[in-house]
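Attaching the record inline, Q. Sequence:
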Amino acid sequence: MSRPVKSVVELRAADVDDSTSRMQDAARALRTFASDLPAAPDESRLRSLRWLADAVEMEAHVLRDNWQKFCDDAGMNSDERAA
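Structure, as predicted:
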């Protein structure tokens, strides 16, 4: 039994929202961890943590942008996109 397309799209919209929220939470956690380190780590490790946090946050933006482009290409309006 197949689901209606709108139902599948609504599920995917919820997945995108959940995934981007988790990615942004992870980026914040990495930044907090890096700023709360008790001993000063060497600068290259600190740069690596910052880079990782930036990369996770950037991927969240890319995922959301790609979803927006998919919705635009499919001709869906914002009501159809919302889960």
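DSSP finds three helices and no strands in the chain. The chain has a mean pLDDT of 79.

More tomorrow.
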